[in-house]
């Protein structure tokens, strides 16, 4: 199909705003037409309406890549107005995902053989390390681009058929408690690739089903979509679902009064999915550009994650940050401190209290006169639920804090009181004894995972209360202040399922050095730089220093 054949596209109902805002140059106009036509063709292929699925899908992929190339050229030539450029920046992740993975599309979408994927529906109002409690799951088959045999199941239907024993993570067995690892608890790893592998294994052990990949989604993704397409009527339940009422309505219809064996959870989710799909496929005025923006931000913020059994495809997604992988590509150097911070929570209270939880982080770093580097991280949790308020309650939080491997814990302070730290009792043969008495003090688990140091312990935050947790730690590596320059880099690793977190960062340094570069949000005051950030995704923050 040449350009002349698509200058009059069949469906322009979803024409992006970028055609309507300004008088566009030929590059942007061409890109817009390519984009609209490719969306129309993909809809036909996925719904089974295409007469030539392989050919149409190949052409749609080419049009998408041509559209992206045209937009990139226009951007490089300075032919895109500022407001439009900002809108395009909002979909950068999705654009990169499409252009970076297009080579794998035929295999991913089942043109080289049918593919089956496991979808984990993670309720991030009951937060878990991988995003949220897995109350439901789905399987979908893709055959030549067409969605076939999409089904949603309650997770207990698989868990009840688990054959054999799979040992759960220590916090699950001790504090939940559970004697076996089930699909519903499979996302306890710090990276989605770990959780996906665990979930696929447990599905196979339970139902003898193998999958080619795993997709993780949470309620925030659905909220992002509803924000753009507007309210959705779920006829089966005579309800209208909006961005604002999604969580409470889902809890009421799918969770309240639920018991293992009940179908209410999967029934409501299936009806909601069908209603959203109906709007996307039938409504002529879908704001595709805004919808692309919501999907793009959801990938950035880890509300939508991917993992593939094919190692080549998986590597593409991991390298580009589309798989929720804890990846650190920064090079080590003698005159550089590579810092790392991740805050990871697990709700083990069997409730949906995370709807009511807010948190803020404050990190202080000090470079002493002798080059020694020490740091503290303070996390303030607020439980806004009231006592006895459904679906809230107390927050039983297994908290894990991730730092570089070359750090050592110096102390933990909770609500202003320094804790007596003791090694966590992690052996079930000990803590499951009938007469077991926990040791006095705070039990702390320390281990290394993916070349990072992890410190974990249990905290409880009652309804309508604050809890302040502070960790002090030092770096084994010192900075040689005789070097003319040195750098400090902080990589913040955002937990899937968590929304925006305010982060304060301050760095104090000796008078004999001065700051030469910093993010524009930061201010200086004598021998200190400080600033506030609002983080929704993984972020790298860099500083450079020199001798006076």
Explain how this protein is built.
By secondary structure, the chain is of the alpha+beta class. The protein folds into three domains: 3-89, no CATH class; 115-319, Aminopeptidase (3-Layer(aba) Sandwich); 336-547, Sandwich (Immunoglobulin-like). The protein contains 15 helices and 23 strands. The protein has helices at residues 3-6, 26-47, 53-76, 82-89, 92-101, 105-108, 155-159, 170-175, 192-207, 219-229, 246-255, 264-282, 288-300, 311-319, 428-431, and strands at residues 115-123, 133-143, 146-154, 213-218, 232-234, 239-241, 304-308, 336-347, 357-367, 373-383, 395-404, 407-414, 417-418, 421-423, 442-449, 452-461, 465-475, 485-493, 501-508, 513-517, 523-524, 528-535, 539-547. Strands 14-15-16-11-8-18-23-20 form an eight-stranded mixed sheet, with no helix packed on it. It has an eight-stranded mixed sheet with strand order 13-12-17-10-9-19-22-21, with no helix packed on it. The longest helix is centred in the first third of the chain and has 24 residues, at 53-76. It starts with a helix and ends with a strand. Residues 1-24 have low confidence and may be disordered.
User: Residue share in helices?
Assistant: 25-40%
Total number of strands? 23
Task: Look at the structure and give the mean pLDDT.
Answer: 88
Distance between the termini: 64 Å
Strand content: 25-35%
- Supply Rg: 25 Å
CATH class of the largest domain: Mainly Beta
What's the architecture of the largest domain, going by CATH? Sandwich
How would you classify the helix and strand content by structural class?
A: alpha+beta
Count of helices? 15
Low-confidence regions: 1-24
Question: In total, how many domains does the architecture comprise?
Answer: 3
Give the spatial strand order of the biggest sheet. Answer: 14-15-16-11-8-18-23-20
CATH topology of the largest domain: Immunoglobulin-like
Largest sheet: 8 strands, mixed
Question: Any idea what the shape is?
Answer: globular
């Amino acid at each position: 199909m040449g350009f002349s054949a698509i200058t009059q596209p069949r469906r322009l109902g979803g024409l992006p705003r970028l055609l309507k805002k300004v008088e566009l140059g030929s590059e942007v106009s061409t890109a817009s037409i390519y984009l609209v036509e490719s969306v129309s063709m993909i809809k036909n292929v996925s719904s089974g309406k295409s007469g030539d699925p392989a050919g149409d899908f190949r052409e749609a992929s080419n049009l998408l890549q041509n559209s992206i190339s045209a937009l990139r050229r226009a951007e490089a030539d300075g032919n895109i107005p500022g407001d439009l450029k900002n809108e395009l920046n909002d979909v950068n992740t999705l654009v990169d995902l499409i252009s970076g993975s297009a080579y794998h599309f035929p295999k991913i979408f089942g043109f080289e053989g049918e593919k089956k994927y496991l979808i984990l529906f993670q309720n991030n109002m009951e937060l878990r390390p991988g995003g949220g409690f897995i109350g439901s799951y789905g399987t979908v088959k893709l055959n030549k681009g067409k969605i076939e045999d999409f089904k949603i199941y309650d997770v207990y239907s698989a868990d009840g058929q688990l054959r054999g024993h799979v040992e759960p993570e220590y916090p699950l067995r001790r504090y939940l408690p559970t004697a076996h690892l089930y699909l519903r608890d499979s996302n306890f790893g710090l990276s989605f690739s770990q959780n996906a592998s665990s979930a696929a294994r447990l599905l196979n052990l339970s139902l003898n089903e193998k999958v080619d990949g795993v997709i993780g989604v949470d309620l925030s993704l659905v909220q992002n979509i509803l924000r753009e397409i507007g309210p959705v009527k779920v006829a089966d339940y005579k309800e209208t679902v909006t961005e604002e009422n999604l969580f409470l309505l889902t809890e009421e219809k799918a969770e309240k009064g639920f018991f293992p064996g009940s179908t209410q959870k999967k029934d409501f989710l299936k009806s909601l999915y069908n209603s959203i799909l109906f709007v996307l496929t039938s409504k002529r005025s879908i704001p595709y550009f805004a919808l692309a923006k919501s999907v793009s931000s959801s990938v950035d913020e880890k509300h939508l994650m991917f993992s593939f059994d094919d190692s080549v495809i998986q590597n593409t997604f991991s390298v580009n940050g589309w798989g929720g992988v804890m990846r650190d590509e920064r090079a080590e150097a003698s005159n550089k401190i590579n810092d790392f911070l991740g805050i990871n929570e697990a709700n083990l209270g069997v409730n949906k209290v995370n709807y009511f939880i807010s948190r803020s982080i404050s990190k202080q770093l000090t470079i002493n006169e002798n080059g020694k580097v020490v740091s503290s991280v303070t996390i303030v949790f607020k439980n806004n639920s009231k006592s006895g308020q459904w679906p809230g309650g107390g927050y039983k939080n297994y908290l894990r804090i991730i730092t570089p491997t070359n750090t050592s814990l110096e102390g933990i302070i909770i609500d202003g009181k320094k804790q007596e730290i003791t090694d966590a009792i992690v052996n079930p043969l000990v803590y499951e004894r009938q007469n077991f008495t926990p040791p006095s003090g705070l039990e702390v688990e320390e281990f290394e995972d993916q070349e990072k140091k992890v410190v974990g312990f249990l905290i409880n935050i009652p309804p309508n209360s604050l809890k302040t947790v502070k960790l002090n730690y030092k770096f084994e590596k010192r900075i040689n202040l005789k070097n003319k320059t040195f750098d400090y880099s902080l990589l913040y690793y955002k937990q899937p399922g968590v929304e925006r977190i305010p982060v304060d960062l301050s760095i104090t340094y000796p008078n004999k050095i001065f700051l030469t570069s910093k993010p524009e949000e930061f201010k200086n005051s004598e021998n200190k730089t400080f600033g506030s950030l609002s983080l929704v995704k993984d972020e790298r923050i860099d500083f450079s220093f020199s001798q006076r």
